[in-house]
Amino acid sequence: xxxxxxxxxxxxxxxxxxxxxxxxxxxxxxxxxxxxxxxxxxxxxxxxxxxxxxxxxxxxxxxxxxxxxxxxxxxxxxxxxxxxxxxxxxxxxxxxxxxxxxxxxxxxxxxxxxxxxxxxxxxxxxxxxxxxxx
Length: 134
Description:
Layout: E1 4-7, H1 12-23, E2 29-32, H2 40-50, H3 54-57, H4 63-67, H5 77-86, E3 95-98, E4 101-104, E5 121-123, E6 129-131
Parallel strand pairs: 1-2
Antiparallel strand pairs: 1-3, 3-4, 5-6
């Protein structure tokens, strides 16, 4: 299976996650999800693979979250998913899928667990060094 990353090149966490993958010998399929959002069915599949609720994947910092009132606890999972499909910026990132599973990689070092041959250490853009310890 080819690994993949739902990526936003403007996001430092997403850039760091992609760089860790490449430093570990991965050549992932890069999906810029703001340009090519997942289908509703695939988003539901990803949520199941990550064992996350739609609300846990919701990027609540975005202004559209407040505009749509998505913090309302009475909203159903389907309503949250519909909002993410209509406004992909609401999908938190980066999401990585490999043969080992799928995960929201926040912080970026969560990706280590999804890689076959993770690099031992990595220096993030901000200079922070992260280490992989099995």
